[in-house]
Amino acid sequence: MEIRVRNPEDKEACVEALAQVQAADRYPVDWPDDPWGWLTPADLTSAWIAIELGTVLGHVGLTRDAEIVRLFVTPAARGRGLAAQLLDSVRAAVRGPLRLEVSSEGKAAIACYERSGWRRVGSSRADWVNAAGEPALLHHYVSP
To answer: Which molecular function GO terms apply here (predicted)?
Structure first.
């Protein structure tokens, strides 16, 4: 398994991995009309993937304002520490603090961030709805 910078040739494999995550976890809550566009928001500066034998196992992105976005690990690859490794790859590439938001529904993600030393600095309601149809409760974290 390797972690490397994502490139345009990874499009199909990234969308396939996202589909697996969405089917298992409803992340994102609703399947986007343009999944590659969802993985590549306008303010994205870089993205990394965990890949093994041509299969994308995980993904993470970084925005202009040092926010971690679109972090996920496929169900079959969980339990190997890939989310933490993806976060470490971003931290190694960026000087200074990073931040991220996570829905309160993401219990496993929250546990991973807190095990990795990320610190919750606040919470707010999102402008999108969670799986229960309510405005999602977002927890805001900063990197160690």
So the answer is: acyltransferase activity, transferring groups other than amino-acyl groups
